Amino acid sequence: NHRGKNLALNLIDNIVSRKNIKYLISTVSPSNISSQRVFEKFAKKYEANIEKSTLFFIEDFVNSHEEEVQFKIGPIK
């Protein structure tokens, strides 16, 4: 089990450290609390703002799927 070892955060850190990235944009399902926490930790670490907005609504999906919230993090310092 790799939970609690910050693998996702370390992966994002690695990518950001190798590129001149100013913003990170991703979508997260509201029920995916773990992913939300990863992005919140990332924003805090880099002293970046988080803008959250619904990108895809339930009715945008053919099958039952919850909405997807876009996280826009930046500028990354």
Secondary-structure class = alpha+beta
The number of domains is: 1
What's the number of helices? 2
The name CATH uses for the topology is: Aminopeptidase
Write up what this structure looks like.
With 77 residues, the chain is of the alpha+beta class. The protein starts with 6 loop residues before the first helix and ends with a strand. The mean pLDDT is 91. The relative contact order is 0.26. The protein has one domain: Aminopeptidase, CATH 3.40.630. The chain has two helices and three strands. This is Diaminobutyrate acetyltransferase. GO terms for molecular function: transferase activity. Keywords: Transferase.
How would the blueprint of this fold be written?
Blueprint: H1 7-18, E1 24-28, H2 33-45, E2 49-56, E3 68-74
Antiparallel strand pairs: 1-3, 2-3
